[in-house]
Amino acid sequence: MKIAVIGSINMDMTLSAPRIPLKGETILGDSIAYAPGGKGANQAVAIARQGCEVWMFGCVGDDANGQILLKGLEDNGVHTEYVRMVKDVPSGLAVITVGESDNCIVVIPGANKLVDIPYIQEMLPVLLTFDAVVIQLEIPLPTVEFVAQSCYFHRIPVFLNPAPAAAIP
Predict the structure, then answer these.
(1) pTM of the full predicted structure?
(2) Residues 136, 126: contact at Cβ < 8 Å?
(3) CA–CA distances in Å: residue 63 to residues 3, 38, 78, 111
(4) Residues 6 or more apart from 62 whose CB is under 8 A from it?
(5) CB under 8 Å to 130, separation ≥6 — which residues?
(6) CA 120, CA 82: separation in Å to the nearest integer?
């Protein structure tokens, strides 16, 4: 089964602290870790680990994180030839603060904003050859709608992870 994942590719920066700081407060953290992430990329890796052929569609910046993110996908068996590396745009970044068994997350979309309708229109002839498409909401909502409508019209199953939570039509 050939599966396409259209979505976000982020570098996750996880900060560990005794607790999540209050508004306007500065506290000392315990550690910091960087790891490839993004809801789309995480889904692609999970699907590849189940033994399916999976291709990632998305955008990364032409920065050091973009190179690391592509290598992370490839090392996990995800095909990346349709991921666009964008000049002068940073890769997506998620800053995750963890404390007291809870977290708060700030996502800076960066290149993920460019997973837009023109990008999908360009990729559509390839996308329509897949058995299923997986999407989520860390890319522009008009893109998600366009992908769902295009796949529906061509009878390609779409799996939507409605996260992060947002109103969807």
Answers:
(1) 0.94
(2) no
(3) 27, 16, 20, 11
(4) 85, 86, 87, 88, 89
(5) 2, 3, 4, 55, 156
(6) 10
Q: Which two tokens stand for residue 69?
A: 């993110």
Tokens 């964008």 sit on residue: 86
Element housing 141 (H / E): helix 141-153
What are the structure tokens assigned to 67, written together?
A: 């190179």
Q: CA–CA separation, 88 vs 100, rounded Å? A: 38
Question: What DSSP character marks residue 113?
Answer: G
Vertex 26, ends 24 and 32: CA angle to 5°? 125
Per-residue pLDDT of the chain (169 residues; tens, 9 = 90+): 999 999 999 999 999 999 999 999 999 999 999 999 999 999 999 999 999 999 999 999 999 999 999 999 999 999 999 999 999 999 999 999 999 999 999 999 999 999 999 999 999 999 999 999 999 999 999 999 999 999 999 999 999 999 999 988 8
